[in-house]
């Protein structure tokens, strides 16, 4: 699927060999680990499938905003092995969603995610299996963060361990007034392994990241706002009647950033991802390539024809 997307991009591109080599490089950026790192995707998938339970549910809406729900309420939405595989499959579907603009990641039953399912963790507590799971989840969460969609983690209740890491694989985090994000890894004799530490440093800076990880601090919405882990606070509705649900509040928040045609929103996300991840010269070349996909596009021509003013 990745190759297919690359081929389409290449066809759109006008600059021949240079573009091809850049696109090939970009292919290797899609996943952090591949067979050259000794990572055997099919083998890891099969191993993870041996730990079933729960599901990851994807709802793609006509509005261009999809909702991804971590669904394993009897275990506080802990991620079983099969849910990890399910998550990776849902990310693949979103990578190919041409009409998509935004994504909300939420937990079922009023809590976000309590990390990996401890029964699976116990069964694969040897270093080899742990590293395979780590590489699989780094790949999946890196691809989640790189989706050409503006993504928001709607954190309600608790985001613990791997759940806290998952929240950092979205562009933004909105915290319900009752919620807590906690990197509990130290208490488990661990450090984050799903890319959560690397992303956390980029979100809150190394000083704050060090405090959160070494103190296993509970981040409530107030602390989240103070250190920049949280982008907004949502009020938990007190009554069923008339009150906006957290999902509606998150959708309204996201609407401000996803108004407009999907190709333009996707292009915005792509230039930000390349600016965030690539060395400057490479990011500039990618920005030029992405610019080429929107320059003279229907949205651009329509805006020019309407002589729009930006008062
Ligand atoms: C550390 C890194 C690693 C990774 O990155 O891969 C991880 O993520 S390991 C997992 C880290 N998370 C935890 O250690 C969470 C442990 N659970 C708790 O602290 C509590 O259960 C809590 C705070 C989430 C909820 O507490 P509460 O009192 O509200 O409810 P219960 O404890 O009764 O939980 C209900 C039910 O859910 C089960 N549960 C909760 N979390 C997990 C989990 N991560 N894996 C498996 N099962 C989990 C809990 O055992 C209860 O089940 P029950 O059968 O009713 O005993």
Automatic annotation (TrEMBL):
<comment type="function">
    <text>Decarboxylates ethylmalonyl-CoA, a potentially toxic metabolite, to form butyryl-CoA, suggesting it might be involved in metabolite proofreading. Acts preferentially on (S)-ethylmalonyl-CoA but also has some activity on the (R)-isomer. Also has methylmalonyl-CoA decarboxylase activity at lower level.</text>
</comment>
<dbReference type="GO" id="GO:0004492">
    <property type="term" value="F:methyl/ethyl malonyl-CoA decarboxylase activity"/>
</dbReference>
<dbReference type="GO" id="GO:0005829">
    <property type="term" value="C:cytosol"/>
</dbReference>
<dbReference type="InterPro" id="IPR001753">
    <property type="entry name" value="Enoyl-CoA_hydra/iso"/>
</dbReference>
<dbReference type="GO" id="GO:0006635">
    <property type="term" value="P:fatty acid beta-oxidation"/>
</dbReference>
<protein>
    <recommendedName>
        <fullName>Ethylmalonyl-CoA decarboxylase</fullName>
        <ecNumber>4.1.1.94</ecNumber>
    </recommendedName>
</protein>
<keyword id="KW-0963">Cytoplasm</keyword>
<dbReference type="InterPro" id="IPR029045">
    <property type="entry name" value="ClpP/crotonase-like_dom_sf"/>
</dbReference>
<dbReference type="Pfam" id="PF00378">
    <property type="entry name" value="ECH_1"/>
</dbReference>
<dbReference type="InterPro" id="IPR018376">
    <property type="entry name" value="Enoyl-CoA_hyd/isom_CS"/>
</dbReference>
<comment type="similarity">
    <text>Belongs to the enoyl-CoA hydratase/isomerase family.</text>
</comment>
<keyword id="KW-0456">Lyase</keyword>
């Amino acid at each position: 699927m990745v190759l297919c997307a690359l081929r389409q991009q290449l066809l759109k591109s006008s600059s021949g060999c240079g573009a091809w080599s850049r696109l090939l490089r970009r292919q290797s950026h899609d996943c952090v680990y591949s067979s050259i790192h000794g990572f055997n995707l099919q083998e890891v998938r099969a191993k993870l499938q041996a730990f079933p339970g729960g599901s990851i549910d994807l709802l793609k809406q006509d509005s261009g905003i999809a909702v991804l729900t971590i669904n394993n309420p009897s275990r506080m939405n802990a991620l079983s092995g099969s849910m990890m595989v399910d998550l990776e499959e849902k990310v693949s579907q979103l990578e190919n969603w041409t009409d998509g603009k935004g994504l909300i990641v939420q937990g079922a039953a009023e809590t976000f995610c309590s990390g990996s399912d401890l029964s699976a963790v116990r069964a694969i507590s040897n270093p080899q299996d742990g590293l395979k799971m780590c590489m699989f989840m780094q790949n999946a969460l890196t691809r989640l963060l790189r989706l050409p969609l503006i993504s928001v983690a709607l954190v309600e209740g608790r985001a613990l361990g791997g759940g806290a890491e998952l929240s950092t694989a979205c562009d933004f985090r909105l915290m319900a007034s009752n919620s807590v994000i906690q990197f509990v890894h130290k208490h488990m004799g661990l450090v984050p392994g799903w890319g959560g530490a690397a992303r956390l440093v980029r979100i809150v800076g190394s000083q704050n990241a060090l405090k959160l990880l070494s103190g296993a601090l509970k981040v409530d919405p107030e602390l989240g706002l103070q250190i920049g882990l949280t982008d907004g606070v949502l009020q938990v509705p007190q009554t069923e009647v008339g009150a906006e649900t957290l999902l509606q509040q998150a959708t309204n928040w996201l609407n401000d950033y996803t108004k407009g045609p999907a190709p333009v929103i996707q292009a915005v996300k792509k230039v930000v991802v390349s600016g965030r991840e690539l060395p400057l010269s490479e990011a500039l070349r990618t920005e030029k390539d992405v610019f080429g996909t929107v320059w003279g596009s229907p949205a651009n021509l329509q805006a020019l024809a309407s002589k729009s003013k930006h008062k």
